[in-house]
Amino acid sequence: MRTEAVRDRYRATFGAVPSGVENRLRVARALGRLGTEEAFAELRHIVLTDNPLGERVQQLVHFGQLLALGRTDPARLHARGALHAGADLTDLVGVAETALITAGTPAYALGIEIIAELLEAERLEVGDHRAV
To answer: Global pTM?
Structure first.
């Protein structure tokens, strides 16, 4: 597996290659460490796709865990990944509400902030310019 194959794994999960992955690939290529990224992508693929939870639930779990950890950018990425895997915004709200109980108001607020961004992006995509 080479660089493009690693990118393909991320495209399959998220529909795009995250900028952080591009940065890691650039460093790995420049410093002769592409094998590490390939191994990481393979492990990630196994954990995400060969998992009893399935891709949709797996992405929702990632979203919730990242909310609990306060990891804003990765939580955004996995929220989009969940949508790409068939979840909807209501599923994301359910995760955010669960985070309220398990991780408190900051996790819930972060989840709702991300969902609001996704809702706005969805609204703009369909051309609905009414206030949300």
So the answer is: 0.81
* Six-digit token string for 15: 């529909």
Q: What span, in angstroms and rounded, lies between the C-alpha atoms of 53 and 43?
A: 16
- Angle CA 34–38–41, to nearest 5: 140
| CA dist., res. 132 & res. 130, Å (int) | 6
Q: What is the DSSP code string of 6-51?
A: HHHHHHHHHSS--HHHHHHHHHHHHTT-HHHHHHHHHHHHHHHHSS
Q: Per-residue pLDDT tens for 96-111?
A: 999 999 999 999 999 9
What does the block give as tokens for 74?
């990765």
Q: How far apart are CA 75 and CA 98, in angstroms?
A: 15
Amino acid identity at 58: Q
